[in-house]
Amino acid sequence: MNPVRVPEGVPAGGQFAASTRSEPRVSIAPAAAGFPRIEEAGPAEVRVLSRSDDPLVRAEAASSPVITDDVLEELAAHHQPPAVRLAAVHTGYAGTADRAAHDPSPIVRASALVSWDLSETGRRRLARDSEVQRFMTLIAA
Questions:
Q1: Whole-angstrom Cα distance, residue 100 to residue 77?
Q2: From CA 71, how far away is CA 61, in angstroms rounded?
Q3: Ordered alpha helix ranges (H), the chain
Q4: Threshold 0.70, pTM exceeds
């Protein structure tokens, strides 16, 4: 009796065999428009991207590891679309959660609530914020 259960010529393990795959590289900045990949952009290029007419490009700019404080503050401003402000709160830079805790959007405030750098005062206030708690309940369901 032959203990091998894989037909001859098929690599061991078949379709379920372990294989290595790299992480996909996803970017919402339109490469065709001549924008650099955000992880390769310098501070000056990030500043240009942060002024794009496209809010998705501005949101992408917020994820740059070389974003300057003044650009990040501009992207977190209340006149920006919620998607841009949400991207700004997800940067992980100190102080962004406390700024986002006062955002007009309950989604942005909810993101601030789960951020590492939110002050205890902000955390207590958002824990009592009915809009934030309603949003948190909806996403937990």
A1: 9
A2: 9
A3: 43-49, 55-62, 69-75, 82-89, 96-100, 106-113, 120-127, 130-140
A4: no
Per the structure block, which two tokens stand in for 39? 């992880």
Q: Could you give the CA distance from residue 102 to residue 131 in angstroms, rounded to a whole number?
A: 12
Residue the block writes with tokens 């900045």:
29
Cα torsion through 139, 100, 36, 21, rounded to 10: -30
How far apart, in whole angstroms, are the C-alpha atoms of residue 133 and residue 141?
A: 12
pLDDT digits (tens, 9 = 90+) for 6-43: 566 666 655 666 666 666 555 554 554 555 577 777 88
* Backbone φ, ψ for residue 132 (5° rounding): -65, -45
Its sign, for the CA torsion 135, 89, 122, 118, is positive
SS3 content of the chain, % helix, strand, coil (to 5): 50, 0, 50
